[in-house]
Amino acid sequence: VDITSNNVIVTEGISEGIEMVLAALVEKGDEILFPGPTYPPYISYTKFFEGTPVSYETIEDEGWAPNIDDLRSKISPKTRAIVITNPNNPTGSVYNGKMIKEMLDIAGEHDLPVLSDEIYDQLTYEKEFVSTANLSKDVPVVGLNGFSKVYQMTGWRLGYMYFKGEGKQLDDLRMGVEKQCRIRLCANTPVQIAGAAALDGPQDFVKGIVDRLRERRDYSWERLNEIEGISATKPEGAFYIFPKIHDIGTRWKTDMEFVVELLKETGVLIVNGSGFDPVYGKDHARIVFLPPCEELEEAFNCLEQFMKKKQKTGHSHVGHG
Ligand SMILES: Cc1ncc(COP(=O)(O)O)c(C=O)c1O
Hints:
By secondary structure, this protein is an alpha/beta fold. It contains ten helices and 13 strands.
């Protein structure tokens, strides 16, 4: 991305960046458009600043690609920004250049800035990551990135946001963010020095991480699709898989009930999909495939046994009328 360091603000993780940028953007009743499902703080902070979170559909059968028509139909006079999360948490979807251009075009037509969260940018398995700010010609883009995933400095709390574009809209937004930066004084300086060392140091370790994660992704995807009552699309990036649990609505009332029962009976913790979007995330669950395959194997064995047991109980109910 063609920007200078003057256009970069260092934050204590992307999380702080999300809070600042939404604080600067959202007035009561304003709408922020983000992918459904999404990383939950986008929903929480929009609500916190008295805005209305609005999700656009991402399509499971198409690898959770954004539904461009749905995005377009959800723009209203109250929309203040479009959020892109690429690669996506919790679906692992990676957007191609065409999708991003279409989203930028919609933003351009409606004079909206795009917030592009790219924290998993280097963690893609087949597709190349494409930068939103790089593709944008005249749509203002606020890029959000950090050190928590690729550099595994999660607890050190270091991230950054950058502003690409020109015009009053972006200047105002940036001023709103800078005011908040002045209140919190600065991001932890020793950690900033560590972050610079991470960026300046050798990067060949990233390939090792991606290779290990690809193996864990493949293993998780295969195991999940072998379990009756569960199906999952193959994630293309990040380290999450977002399977559909088919018997939610019948055997379990909600995805929350499913994950709580699984936790209580097996000790395996996964996260309910509706927490990532009440509409497009429901009936799903998010699984993190960071652990080595041996650990994943143990967890998937528990999940498989759990599902078999529930299916048996289900059949006996049917059998006894
Ligand atoms: C899409 C996305 N953005 C941001 C974050 C948080 O990043 P940070 O640790 O830099 O606050 C996460 C963490 O899970 C994430 O999935």
